[in-house]
């Protein structure tokens, strides 16, 4: 049985209150388009890139030098995306007819492709076809609520996750960039991925059996959805206790999970949560639950 430990959530929130957590504005032009560019182009970039923003590594890391600078994982993906944007890659009609050879510029580094290359090509083709049918990308994001955004995205295969990881990530980007303003901010949640699940389990805000997590047994789709829904709810509780917008919390947690609470060799000496961390107290650092063959996150 998986439950939420409200006391642990309140303790984590207490630490967060001391950290001065702030939202990103997503202006780093290594990864994102110039903010003054036409809305259609920016919308096309974010809808398309978030559509393929899921696990980049399976057997080998997706990393390497791009124009002389080393990038890893999602950073590498968005750096490649930014360069493709400059070449006019993100047009609905072009994406709808995308070929594997054209996709090489977005999904490969030094000739090494991302692990599910063909899946991402198909997801982008679907995005392009659906956007073309709707009259472009700007129309898709021209909504005043997160609920309506999710409805507008629901026809796209990339956004069919019941937990809504990619939809929430897109909402976060759009609002942070000033491309959308949502009146139903109470509907915002963290976009739950591996990092957020792992941190929730280790902090103990989601009480799950560590033996199970450490066993490496892969869960099926229904169990994965159930676990991530619990994680999402737990972080919503933490956000309320900490008086943080879930999108600001996600910005913090994503970087924290990548840099401090790593899957392997967590950097506990640098962790502000170590005094309230279940994993640290037990001396056990389980990974996130295992669910590999998915494009949901």
Summarize the amount of helix as a percent range.
Answer: 40-55%
Into how many domains do the coordinates divide? 2
What is the CATH third-level topology name of the largest domain? Answer: Endonuclease Iii, domain 2
- Helix-strand topology string: EHHEEHHHEEHHHHHEHHHH
**Can you name the CATH architecture of the largest domain?**
Orthogonal Bundle
Question: Alpha-carbon distance between the termini?
Answer: 23 Å
Organism: Pyrobaculum arsenaticum (strain DSM 13514 / JCM 11321 / PZ6)
GO molecular function: DNA-(apurinic or apyrimidinic site) endonuclease activity; lyase activity; oxidized pyrimidine nucleobase lesion DNA N-glycosylase activity
GO biological process, one term: base-excision repair, AP site formation
InterPro entries: DNA_glycosylase, HhH_base_excis_C
Summarize the topology:
Blueprint: E1 3-4, H1 6-16, H2 39-51, E2 63-66, E3 69-72, H3 73-86, H4 92-96, H5 100-107, E4 108-109, E5 112-113, H6 117-133, H7 137-141, H8 146-153, H9 165-176, H10 194-203, E6 206-207, H11 210-215, H12 221-242, H13 246-259, H14 278-282
Antiparallel strand pairs: 1-6, 2-3, 4-5
Helix pairs in contact: 1-12, 2-9, 10-12, 10-13
Keywords: DNA damage, DNA repair, Glycosidase, Hydrolase, Lyase
InterPro entries: DNA_glycosylase, HhH_base_excis_C
GO molecular function, one term: DNA-(apurinic or apyrimidinic site) endonuclease activity
Describe this structure in words.
- This protein has 14 helices and 6 strands.
- The relative contact order is 0.16.
- It folds into 2 domains: 3-23 and 187-282, Endonuclease Iii, domain 2 (Orthogonal Bundle), CATH 1.10.1670.10; 39-142, no CATH class.
- The strands form 3 sheets. The protein has a two-stranded antiparallel sheet. Strands 2-3 form a two-stranded antiparallel sheet.
- With 297 residues, the protein is mainly α.
- Helix content is 51%, strand content 5%.
- The model has no long low-confidence stretch (mean pLDDT 97).
- The protein is globular.
- It has helices at residues 6-16, 39-51, 73-86, 92-96, 100-107, 117-133, 137-141, 146-153, 165-176, 194-203, 210-215, 221-242, 246-259, 278-282; strands at residues 3-4, 63-66, 69-72, 108-109, 112-113, 206-207.
